[in-house]
Amino acid sequence: MPPVPPMNDKTRSLLMQVAVPTVVSLLWREGYRTMLMQGPKPLNPQAAKFVGPAFTVRTVPTRQDFLDDQAAGTRPNLQGQSVADIPAGAVLAVAMNGETRTAFMGDIMTTRMLVKGVAGVVLDGGVSDALAISGIPLPVFCMGSAGTPVTSHRYVIDLNVPVEMDGVSILPGDIVMGDPDGIVVIPAPLVDRIAEAAYEREQLESFVIGKVRDGAPLEGTYPPNEATLAEYEAWKAQSAG
Fold first, then answer.
1. How crowded is residue 108: how many other Cβ atoms within 10 Å of its Cβ?
2. Where are the domains of the chain?
3. Which end of the chain offers a freer environment for a tag, N or C, measured as fewer CB atoms within 10 Å?
4. Is the entire prediction scored with pTM above 0.85?
């Protein structure tokens, strides 16, 4: 199982300053049009922003022989191993095929990942102890609350392999970014360029909003014409100075 590559600090900082819709629109222009997850929702509204490389978890419907082998020690407990192996700064991406009758984790596992410095958790399935998790300052996005353990309906069969979550393909090491607008997956080879472009776009939009707030008409301001773009470049240079 390959290790999750660390993320460039500058790229992480830029993405933490921009919104998911901005990144989605830039990926759309690149031809990546199925990279947004809207199903999983944050349990803690005060902890709903995260960015990090994906550490993926694949689950399948449970079979009794899987459970028997795990109890006998001939099949590893990959659910526990995922929490043990995920590095600081990564995002645990748990593919559960929308299963909300089963909880992959509760507040104890969540607390452990918080202490380890995990950037966030995304599940297209359920958790237990949802109320307790909602008070933990770790971004956790899921599809619902369930009281039964993961092995009741889903079984962790593999780690750090390609998975599908809420209609999005995720490869280990892809960058997963979430905020209250949803979750976007950025293919790893594109992330530095997308981060720079997203930050630049939001800087321009911040300038445009300021002009509109000061009374500028939309025509020529948004979308910005050449004169507005020239004003923006001057504003940027002044701010940098």
1. 11
2. 9-187, 194-240
3. C
4. yes
